[in-house]
Amino acid sequence: MAKILVIDDEEQLRDLLKKMLTRDGHQVFMAQDGEEGVRSFYQFKPDLIITDIIMPNKDGIEVIMELLNANPELPIIAISGGRRAITAGFNLDSAEMLGVKGILQKPFTHQQLQDVIQETLNL
Q: How many CB atoms lie under 10 A from the CB of residue 97?
């Protein structure tokens, strides 16, 4: 399937995403913040990025801008929400305006994740 880089500062969500994506046949790489995520992108050259928006050490908007500047066609899915649900819609709208290929508001189901990945990668 695809090589996917997950960038999120919430360890439980990273672990859950890794389990779901691995079960779906994807190769998964993990990063705990935006700085590590950008480094991991250049190290692993994934087919798809899934990034949270609100993170320390470089937020998801900065990650999206940097990676799309380097590769405008890069498939990126932005995720936001959870305890920050009030601003999640604004964050996801901002990410969409920057050019991400998909968005998901937390919490989301495994099926919703599969659907947005399929749509983003045109599988």
A: 8
Q: Which structure tokens are listed for 104?
A: 């998901």
> What is the set of domains in the chain, with CATH numbers?
3-121 (3.40.50.2300)
pTM of the model: 0.93
Instruction: DSSP for the chain, please give it.
Output: --EEEEE-S-HHHHHHHHHHHHHTT-EEEEESSHHHHHHHHHHH--SEEEEESS-TTS-HHHHHHHHHHH-TT--EEEEEEGGGHHHHHHHHHHHHHHT-SEEEEES--HHHHHHHHHHHHT-
d(CA 114, CA 52): 17
**What are the backbone angles phi and psi of residue 52, rounded to the nearest 5°?**
-70, 165
Share of the chain above pLDDT 70, in %: 93
